[in-house]
Write a structure and sequence with these properties.
It is built from three helices and three strands. By secondary structure, it is an alpha/beta fold. It has a three-stranded parallel sheet with strand order 1-2-3, with helices on one face. Helix 2 links the parallel strand 1 and strand 2. It is globular, with a radius of gyration of 11 Å.
């Protein structure tokens, strides 16, 4: 189990962060005070997921365009 006070300020990059396991991972890490970078294939879907997550918890998330894996 991740202890919140030991994880504060850590950085995590989560791939597939706009849906499914990736999305839930972002939520869990953000709740543990990680700085989360969402790496997604679709920037619009990533922005929608970011907004939804931010409405659930008051956090700051990053969407990094340079990490997008476009096919």
């Amino acid at each position: 189990a991740l202890k919140k006070h030991f994880q504060k300020g850590r950085i995590a990059i989560v791939t597939g962060a706009n849906i499914g396991v990736g999305y839930e991972t972002v939520v869990g890490l953000a709740q543990k005070d990680f700085k989360v970078i969402m790496a997604c294939r679709n920037e619009q879907k990533a922005a929608k997921a970011k907004k939804k997550i931010q409405s659930l918890i008051s956090i700051s998330l990053s969407i990094k365009g340079d990490l997008l894996c476009k096919s």
